[in-house]
Amino acid sequence: MYKVLLIEDEKPAAEWLRQLILKFDPRISILAVIDSVSGAEEWFEQHPAPDLVFMDIQLADGLSFEIFERVKVPCPVIFTTAYEEYAIKAFKVNSVDYLLKPIAWNELEAAFHKFSHQMTSVQAAPPITIELLNKVKEMLRKQYKNRFVIKVGDHLKSIPVEDILFFYSLEKATYLCTSDFRTYLVDYSLDHISEMIDEQQFFRINRKYILSNQSIADIVVYSNSRLKIKLKKPDEESIIVSRDKVQGFKEWLDL
Predict the structure, then answer these.
(1) Tens digits of per-residue pLDDT, 137-166?
(2) C-alpha neighbours within 13 Å on the C-beta side of residue 165
(3) What is the structure's pLDDT at 86?
């Protein structure tokens, strides 16, 4: 039976995908779960090629397309992504399959059937070329992450970015707070999140907080023009804008 490699940096998404794959066929061997471009590069250099790779587009240290630029990937790839379909339509044109997160059972099943058909077909799928990847990278540069997948118990929940009030770090973990004042653990650092979200919608005010423009209840000027922010979340303490962020924050607010 098939040997499958998972390249995915969101732990809940990787576990969900693993469960779906084994539901499709428990005989499938999942060789490893890799969470970075550099990790994938090292894995391909040290191991025989798998039969199939599930590859997230956005990884911890960059876009997964960089893997193809560093090493040969001599096997079919099914991309997984939180980006909307139109942004990666080039994959469909080139007969490379992709799944939108959160991945549904029927979509994974269809992707496996397509893969199985290609494995037994005389006409193989067109290769993944650097030209194709560059084309898709250019489209993705014009977009930002539009949802975050988080784990709630044994379930996955997809949270649209427009429902997020702020992100914050606490005791080496990262959380998001939604518009209904619920908090959820996320698998990204604030540094990583800063690169994934629209800078017109969010602003990092200090080392511990990234705010949306919908999260602010009040702004108080105090002590040498520094700023204190009261958030809409009722039980949240006021937070201070870092001194070196004040000017940029004012420009972001268009004050």
Answers:
(1) 666 665 678 889 888 888 889 999 999 999
(2) 17
(3) 45
Alpha-carbon span 252 to 255, nearest angstrom: 8
Q: What span, in angstroms and rounded, lies between the C-alpha atoms of 8 and 188?
A: 12
Lowest mean pLDDT among 36-40, 54-58, 80-84, 160-164: 80-84
**Amino acid 153: pLDDT:** 85
CATH of the domain spanning 3-141, picked from 3.40.50.300, 3.90.550.10, 3.40.50.1700, 3.40.50.2300:
3.40.50.2300
* H-state helical runs in the chain: 11-24, 37-46, 65-70, 89-93, 105-120, 130-141, 190-196, 246-253
- CATH architecture for residues 159-253: Beta Barrel (2.40)
DSSP assignment, residue 61? T
Is-contact 198 192, C-beta < 8 A?
A: no
In the chain, where are the structural domains located?
A: 3-141, 159-253
Average pLDDT over residues 78-103: 66
